[in-house]
Amino acid sequence: MPSATQPRLSGPPHQSLLLAASLSLLLGACVQQGPTPPAPSAEPEPTPDVQEKPLAKTEKQPATEKTQTRPFPIDAFYTLLVAEVAGNREQYDVALANYFYQAERTRDAGVAARATRIARFLNARRAALRASKLWAELEPENPEAQLSATAELTLSGDLESALVHAEKALDLGGDAPLQSLAATAVSEPELTQHFLPDFERLTQKYPENPEVSLAYAMMLRANEQYPEALAITRRVQEQHPGMLDAPLLESHILVDLDRRKEAIALLEKLVSVYPQESRLRLQYARLLIRDDLKLAQQQFAELVKQRPRDGNMILSLAMIRFETKQIDEAKPLFERLLVLGEHESAAHFYLGEIAEIEQDVNAAVAHYRKVEPGSDYVPAITRGTELLAENGSTEENRSWFADLRKRHPDQAENFYLMETNLLRKHGQNQEALTLLDQAIASLGDSGRLVYTQALLNDQMGNTAAFESGMRKLLDRDPDNATILNALGYKLIEDNSRLEEAQQLIGKALQLRPDDPAIIDSMGWVQYRLGNHGEAVKYLQKALEELPDHEIAAHLGEVLWMQGNRERAMQVWQRGLKLNPQSKIIPAAMKRLQSNESLEQHASDS
After folding, report:
1. How much helix, strand and coil, in percent to the nearest 5, is found in the chain?
2. Strand pairing partners for 3?
3. What is the DSSP letter of 495?
4. Domain annotation covers residue 406
């Protein structure tokens, strides 16, 4: 009969025939127990692709066995036999389903161990968690069982339970992934504060265990207790010079302490001693990016040699070469990423930029269109559509934006606005207005669309349509200070509506009394009403709050009309320094000086 902890259930797949032979000896005693029930379905979570390495190499077998035995039901035997055959045929999902089912049914530690190993191999996290907890419960004196439970509980985020099993593993003389547990804990400040005393206690309990010490150092670092953390990493290095986690952590702490040069010197020495240790070289390369880009590039080039299929290393090297204008060296690296299927969106984005440099518009647009949603998505769309617009490809742009709205209906408004702004930028205002009409008809009276439409109507000289749009928005949101100010400022142009403009701007100012744009509007309407003293007060305050050439133009004009010409010129000069390309200030100066000349001429006549 099988032992309750018999490791024959945790051997590699190539042992399955031996297992089948041994199990067959039980048939004589069990054939009278009835037909075998159907095999249970797999643990209800998607099973990822199986890795290429053999299942046998994923875990070590327990070091000890118990000899206590108990009968094994015939239906359990058949299910496990099917599992072993399935494993031998690399049908690991079937093997997991059967072992997982029988582990919970039979509560046999060997079956639970086997289920745990298969689940971890398949990255079936929920099954691995349940099986490892069961295994640890059934074999509380097995350090490997406690370690597996620690690892799975850490991955699930149950750090309290993980710490309990970790301590059990340590008590049994085994290892425990405490650095992984600490890495999870330091992700949130509250967790760091909560678990710091536990790690301190474990350090006192196991002062010679480097894993425990480094985990505690990680917690101290997260708590900004850098000197204490640094002392621990250096002590570990003295006691365990080959444990490279310690100097790696030290380099991070030195950076935290703004001692980058020391960190770089430490890593430079370590890389020379351990040239094949990618983790050390990667940290060294990352630190060098800010201080010595050429040397950083050399380190990433070596990393790519060591790990030629590592997309992260290839992308880092490619980006450095791109940023340093080594286009010919960067391009094949980005192309290699596409072959590997790694960081494809980033590769397409940079290949699009390279195609732009090479003045190959078609290739650039093709690459930009292959960028998927992410940090490069909107920039890719912006660059691609801009290139098409510059080349007069209006129809292709229209098709691209239509496709984007179809693919991302929840972002349709944003894509309508992007297309509108592109049309406006290239002087196609009427096409932009038509597009906005289409957008509003499709999406309803979106506030952003109506506001953009109103501004475009204003730009095209259709004041009535502008006011109609603004009034529509105010009907929905009468206390919108931005809309109140925009409409009030526009009405200042009509001398017959100055009182109405003042009321709108006044309400906006009550809602947002510190907004410099609204303060400027109030100063300007006061000027147009003839209240020059009040106007100067508002405009000076607005310019103090927001140094802007338009506000400077307004204040200068009021000062000029008050007869304070020297002060007016000073304000205008300041405005031109703020924006040397300003057209508003020269226009105001020319108009006022021209009016003064005309008045002088009339006086002389």
Report:
1. 75, 0, 25
2. 69
3. G
4. no
For residue 526, being part of any structural domain is answered with no
What are the start-end ranges of the E strands in 19-116?
A: none
What's the rounded Cα separation, in Å, for the pair 151 and 133? 10
Task: Establish if 151 belongs to a structural domain.
Answer: yes
342: Cα separation from own chain's centroid: 17
- Burial class from Cβ neighbours inside 10 Å (0-12, 13-18, 19+) for residue 31 reads exposed
- Token couple for 224: 């900004």
Whole-angstrom distance, CA of residue 122 vs CA of residue 563: 84
The pLDDT score that the predictor gives to residue 105 is 80
> At which residue do the structure tokens 């304070």 appear?
564
Closest CA to 250 of 266, 270, 261: 266
Strand partners, 69: 3
CATH number for the domain including 90? 1.25.40.10
Share of the chain above pLDDT 70, in %: 82
Q: What is the pLDDT of residues 345-395, one digit of tens each?
A: 999 999 999 999 999 999 999 999 999 999 999 999 999 999 999 999 999
Largest CA distance in the chain: 133
Q: Residue 208, exposed/middle/buried by CB under 10 A (0-12, 13-18, 19+)?
A: exposed
- pLDDT tens column, 142-152: 999 999 999 99
- pLDDT tens-place string over residues 166-196: 999 999 998 888 999 999 999 888 899 999 9
Residue with tokens 């040699």: 305
Whether 313 is covered by a domain: the verdict is: no
What's the confidence (pLDDT) of residue 106?
A: 81
Provide the 3-class DSSP secondary structure of residue 558: helix
Tell me the residue range of the domain where 1 lies: 1-166
Rounded-to-integer distance, Cα 83 and Cα 39, Å = 9
Q: Can you state the angle between helices 481-491 and 463-476, rounded to 10 degrees?
A: 150
- Using alpha carbons only, what angle is made at residue 551 by residues 548 and 552, rounded to the nearest 5 degrees? 80
Extract the tokens encoding 252.
């991070």
Residue 108: enclosing H or E segment and its boundaries?
none
Residue 121's pLDDT band (cuts 50, 70, 90): confident
Domain count, the chain: 1
Q: Evaluate if residue 39 carries a pLDDT over 80.
A: no
The pLDDT tens digits for 333-347 are: 999 999 999 999 999
